[in-house]
Amino acid sequence: MPKRWNDEEVKKLEEYYPTTPLSQLLKVFPDRTGDSIDKKAYKLGLKKATSYSASKGDVLTDEEQVLQILITEDLPIEMESLVERTELTPRKVRLAMKSLMEDGYDITEIVGGSDRLYGLVRTGVYDPENFYRFQGEIESPVLMTGDWHLGNRLHSRQAFEHMLESIEEYSPAAVMIDGDLLQGFGVHPRELIDISLKSIDEQVIEGVEYLKEIPDCVKTIGITMGNHESKIKGKWKVGFDACRAVAKEVPRAKYFGFVGKVLLDGDWDYTMMHTEGGVGYAVTYKGQRIRDNLIQRPHILHLAHIHQPYNHPRPHVSGGANTITAGTLKREGGWELQKGWTSLIQYYIMKSWSPTKVSMESFTPRVF
Ligand SMILES: [Fe+2]
């Protein structure tokens, strides 16, 4: 059993949490893990102070200036206007960009005519302190899904309608969509032949319309970014965060960026992420590998990307753990078949969960 937090510790946490980095908090609470500190802070409703993530002092560094511009621009921006807006020299802008990339920002450079354009491939702010914190709370039953691929002609509207019927019947409190909600562009040129909605704006509109069809009993629609949304490239929308754009239009939607970490039923750590990489590799052992290697290991790890469902319980692991991939709402196309791969159109409804008992139902709609 985890040790209860005494009043003195709670007081300390309230005092330190808003402005103290995790590395220091672990020194203040030597008997606690980062996970338990976060969990308690979440339960107490503590938040990081706004000054905490802002720059120290009033003067922005070159990196911060460049980043602020890249984050707010949906479209790639020319070097010339970066120079103009930051009042830095081109050399200093380039150096700032280099050091941002070293910090983990994914900045794409496009050579266009005589100028160069720059765009953030993902607009999510890379913030090591807040990257893996509890971002919300959900309740059972939870509908687990992913890989809808709206905008691809192989998406099955029929399967989605089947899902709506299940929602009416089982009243899940949360629908968790683990990436590849949209088809996007640019993951592989071969996939372009299957695109039915030829602009990312149309795909975003379609995504919003689909989410609005989800019955009202669902309180939270959780969304993470998939590889199809993270690689929206081309001259139109480099750096455009399509899932964020969808979530903005749907009041119940909660967008997590790459990793969604929420409290399930007040006690359990539910983590959702899409993953990337070739399917053969991804399906053989990657899911378990990811889970076993996480520092903060969740009770439920919801993965997607492989377009096939599996539920891998690990009751022998201390605290219990399940790794679940939820299938897809898209039929296989030539791209998958060429790789010897088929899809399984499926989703799960997890009715309740404890370390010793998981109650789950899988649904395999009939499609064309
Ligand atoms: Fe996918």
Describe this structure in words.
The protein is of the alpha/beta class. It folds into three domains: 7-53; 62-120, Winged helix-like DNA-binding domain superfamily/Winged helix DNA-binding domain (Arc Repressor Mutant, subunit A, Orthogonal Bundle); 137-363, Purple Acid Phosphatase, chain A, domain 2 (4-Layer Sandwich). 33% of the residues lie in helices and 20% in strands. The protein is built from 13 helices and 15 strands. It has helices at residues 7-16, 22-28, 34-44, 50-53, 62-72, 79-86, 90-102, 157-170, 200-212, 227-230, 242-248, 279-293, 334-338; strands at residues 77-78, 107-112, 115-120, 137-138, 142-145, 174-178, 220-224, 253-255, 259-264, 268-273, 300-303, 309-313, 322-326, 347-354, 357-363. A six-stranded mixed beta sheet has the order 4-9-10-11-13-12, with helices on one face. A six-stranded mixed beta sheet has the order 8-7-6-5-14-15, covered by helices on one side. Strand 9 and strand 10 form a beta hairpin. Helix 5 (62-72) packs across helix 7 and helix 9 (200-212) crosses helix 11. The longest helix has 15 residues, at 279-293. The protein is globular and about 60 Å long. 37% of the residues are buried. The structure holds fe (ii) ion. Fe (ii) ion is lined by residues 147, 180, 226, 228, 305, 307.
Descriptors for this entry?
about 375 residues, alpha/beta, Arc Repressor Mutant, subunit A, Purple Acid Phosphatase, chain A, domain 2, 3 domains, 6-stranded mixed sheet, 13 helices, about 35% helix, binds fe (ii) ion
